[in-house]
Structures are given as C-alpha cells and as structure tokens.
Design brief:
This protein has 698 residues and is α+β, with helices and mostly antiparallel strands. Strands 9, 10, 11, 12, 13, 14 and 25 form a seven-stranded mixed β-sheet that branches. The chain has a seven-stranded antiparallel β-sheet with strand order 26-29-30-33-32-31-34. The chain has a five-stranded mixed β-sheet with strand order 2-1-7-5-6, covered by helices on one side.
Amino acid sequence: MERITEHPVLQPEERKTIKFTFDGKPCSGLEGEMISSALFANGIKIFSRHKKDSAPQGIFCANGQCAQCSVIADGLTVKSCVTPVRAGMKVETLRGEARLPKTACVQEFGRVEELDVDALIIGGGPSGLAAAAELGKLNVKTLVIDDKARFGGKLVLQTHKFFGSVEDCYAGTRGIDIAEKLEAQLKEYPSVKAWTDACCLAVFSDKKAGVLRGDKYYLVRPKAVISATGAREKSLAFPGNTLPGVYGAGAFQTLVNRDLVRPAKRLFIVGGGNVGLIAAYHALQAGIQVVGLIEAQGHCGGYKVHEDKIKRLGVPVYTRHTILRAEGRNGVETVTIAGVDEKFCPLPGTEKTFKADTLLIAVGLSSVDEFHAQAREAGMEAFVCGDAEEIAEASAAMFSGKITAHKVLKSLGVMSGPVPQFWFDRLEVLKSRPGATETAEVKRPPNPVYPVMHCRQEIPCNPCVTVCPKKSIKLSGDSIMTTPKFSGDCIGCFKCLIICPGLAVTIVDRRKDPKNPSVALPFEIGRGLVKKGDKVRLTGREGADLGEAEVLDVKDFKAENTLIVIVKASQETADLAVSLKLYPAEAGKKAAAELAKSDDETIICRCERVSLGEIRRAIRAGMRDLNQLKAVTRAGMGACGSKTCSTMLLNIFRSEGVDLKEVTAFTKRPLFVEAPLGVFSGVKCRTDAEDKADWGGF
C-alpha cells in the first residue's frame, strides 16, 4: 500500500476500510475517497487502454477537467478522480466500447426543482468563499456551490504558509487552515446556503443555471451570478507526455496532500513558477525524492524563497532547460532534459537523462471562464473573480472575491457608490509579480541574540512584522512589497521564525558562547529525521554548502506544525546558515544528441490521441478553422471537450507562423461538464447489471 502514514503537517484521518475489485483483483480503499486515489494506494497507475492504439492511460488533472482517469465502475464509465469508491464496487480498466453496458433501464421520473436566489456563486475556492461572506454580511440570499466534497478549492491542497497581507488574506497561515477559516465564516450568515458535491453543468439562455447535486438536478434562477471557477492546468507537448506518471502538479498535490497517497518515489518537475516550486516542497514533505526541476527561462518565475527552500534541501534547479521526452513501457521510467538557447531551442550536447517514475507538468494555468461567458451571452448580471478572471496567488483571489461581492451588492441595489479605489490598489499589490532582489549583505547587529532575514526579493508579505513583540521588525518601505529589516531588541521568542512562509528567518544566539553561537533553523520536512547530537550539513540562502554542524536541540511547535532545529555554528557561518541539506544532487546520464530533435508522434489531443504530425500537416495544407481541424483529425472531439489540447493547438499554429487572428476558434459545447442525459428530465437510470442483481441474476 502506498499510503502516507506520517507527515510533518497533515494528520491521517481515521476512516473505515472498504473492499472493492479492479479487473477482478481484490483491493482496499477508504470510505469516501476517490477511485483514483484508492487505485494509486494499491499501486495501480494504469486506468485504461486507449481504443486507438492500446496506449496505457492514467490520471492527468485529478480535477474532473480531463478524461484520462476514466474507468468502468459497476458497469458505467466514470471519471475516477471525482467518483467515490464504494464497498463491493467492481472497477475495471476502460478498453473501449466493447466493455460498456449494453442498455440502461428507466427506473423512475422525477420533477426538476427550481430555486430563486439573489446571487449564485459557482466555485467554493478562496475567491468564491470570500465573496459569499461579503454577501452574507448584508443578508443577501446566496447559493455557493462547489463540485468537491470540501470547500476551499486548491487551498485544501496547500500545506505551506501563505504570503501576502495578514489583515487581508491570512498571510502566515497554512492554506489548509485558511480553507477552514473561510468555510467557517459562512456559518455566521443564515442567508448563505453552501452546497458541496454540486456541479454547475451550464448557464442557459433563459437565465437559469443547471446544477447537479449528487444525483439530483436543480435549475437555479439568480439575479446575479459570480464565476469563481478557478483555473485548469496547461499541458505540454513532448514525446511520452501521455504516459502514466506524467500529470499536473495539482493532481500530485491532490494525491499527496488531500488523500495522503504517495504516488511517486522519484519525481521530476517541469516548471519553475510557484506551482512547480511548491509541489517540489510538498513532495519532500511526503518523503518523495525530487530528482530535479527545470525552467525554460533564465530564472524561476515563482517566489525566490520557494526556489531557495528546495535548493537548500539539495534539489537541483536547472534554468534555461527544457523537457525532451519521457520514456517507459507502461509508465514513466526516464526523463531526458536539455539546455536551450535564447530562442528556447534545445542545445545539442547538453542532453541529460534521469531515472524517474513521475513527471509533473507545472507550466501555467488557464482560466475556467466558460460559465461567465455563457452568463454574459444570456444577458445576466454576470461577474467573475479569482483565477477565473486572472491567474494570481490565492491571497489575491480572496481579495478579488471581496471586491466582486461589492460589485454584486451595487447591482442588486443593496449598496450604492463605487468600490473604494484603495481596494483595487491593494489587490494590485497582492497579485504583483516578484520584484527586485537585493544583493547587499546585511550587517551583523550588536545584539547578543537577533533574527537574520534571508528574504531578499520584493514580494507581498508582512507576517514577520506583525508578530514581533518588540516591534523590532519593520518593512524597509511603505508597501508590503518591500523586504523586512531588523532593528532594535530581540528576546529570541521564535515567533518571526515560525510564521515566515518562506522559512527565511533564522535566529542567531551568542549569549552562551559568543565564539560558537547557536542558530535556530525552521524545519518542516519530517519529525524524527533530525535528532539532538546529530551531525548535519548546513546550507546558505541559495543552497551553498556551509559545512558540518552539531544539532544542539530540536523544538517541536506542534500547534504550528513547525520544528526548530538548533545547531552549533561558527563565527563565519552563523549569519549565513538557513537550512539543512538532506539530499545529494544527481548529475544525470549523458544522452544521445538525436533526442533533441522534434518528434511528430508527440500526442496533442489526449482523448483522441491525435499527433503533432497530423496537426502540422493539416495547418500546412491551409486549415485555419479549429472546428474543421476537429472534423478532419478528431483533435478536440474527445470527452474533455478540448480543455487540455486547445492551448497547445493554438501554440502549434503560432509555431507554424500563422497569425492567430486568422484562426477560427472552437464552437463551445453547451455543457462543460459531462452528466447523464436523464438528469435534465429528472430521470433516474439503472444498468442491466443492477436490474439483474435485484432479480437474483435472472
């Protein structure tokens, strides 16, 4: 079993064990968990074989956006990442139409219930929950829905502490805890109704939204609709990109941090934004070796403190590198990378191959804005917030939801006057890209005990300033984008060290031994890894080796889920030490130069397995209409509705020198989520297998 039983932040819940089968093999799962997670926990990563070429398929998004994880469960095709496993469930590999049930029998007809609300919020992530709370304060009749079993969106996957402003978005608090705080707020407002396991299927031209909650369908008639639907992960074109073991960072975090399933032993990551950097850190917390991370640009686009955190622990970060291919028979076995030139073309002779069983793709997000577009086309009072409007950090999404709620209040006539301009100014700061990085070294203060601030990049963050009991930590400017500075007294209380989201504060104490001071280092990788008396390797801010040190003590602040490792340092290293190096970096194996060549067999459309070569030939033949391209090649025709391939298709047009103004976009499907046809008429259906079971097999 591949379950995580020990974690520095997360505590496994006691849940009933249930039995089910996969292709006749007995398996065990936990009550309420998704089929995909239960299969991973049983070491199963191949969920289907494509009918076109029998290629193995596993999960990719684990968010219900694609269809890679489809299986047959009790005779019906389902997405395993959003379908709970049940006791006695018969799960089978999906192998094409031959394995599907032959008929479905109508059991009963029901009435479709209609609801009237002032505001419908589609999405219960940080922006949706923040908007719901603001509407609830003024007694607006609000329905907020989310298709998951818990509210919080991606917050429920985040074990790290958040950046931003303490007063605006809970900076210094872990994402999983922020999710609970936002959800708890809703209980204070009777006018807000909150539905989990409720999926919006479409927004219709008669200004109603179709919502499927469990197996019951509702038509909701709102006066205003807010799309807080978040974002979906982008895919990437390279040979081997559909192998089981290649999936998005969000899918990885879902398995590791939500379901406490260990999906990998050796992990490689593509993408140096915050998503990829944070996923690497989450992997280390789960006891997974991170072989390396690559970024095509000259520097990582995420916060430098996130990058430095993993480099200090021993994870190599390769900038100006790209992925060439993933290889393996039934899953990822090796990953090959190469350096790139200024035009991002692979440089022959720089290829390296690493052994890895999992490859994470973290190359950006696309807004899920289809419902907002439908609502606007229907002439509804339509609003959008969070990542559905603009990709940014969750801290910005919360404030975005708050601003959007006040726009709704104005449209409903509950409030008058515009949203204060300083709110928009604050939002711009919260969603700011990282600014300049300081290079000047901080001078040692005369104090016998003092904090060392190792964060040198301008990012929106102020938790350390808020907790210092002596008010000795201040921002270097008026904006929270400026870096913190220490000046004054320090009592060595560790508060600044514990709250820092970037683990970028250490405390040097020269009171007992001025020549060999102690240094307190934050540590979140695992309890029991470091003990008093151990010899450890110290690393600097960017991972430089600072030599060996002895562990004097390990303090466990369980309420904050943070350990503090106190080491004996030297005069030279005390102010430089930031972390412990846990893992040796691997160099990789020199690979053959021909691997850098483009491969026309790369799969672009996962659902229909349409290759890069097929797309290129159609474009070179003069095709400029994506709907025609779909009709000819079947690209975009699959179950995901082009959610995973549409961006890549446009990138191919660009690479072929086609101006995107010449390209006709896909005609959007009326429904953006798959649903049984009968739900729209209140029809409940049964398969032949269910009927035979009720009749004793006859």
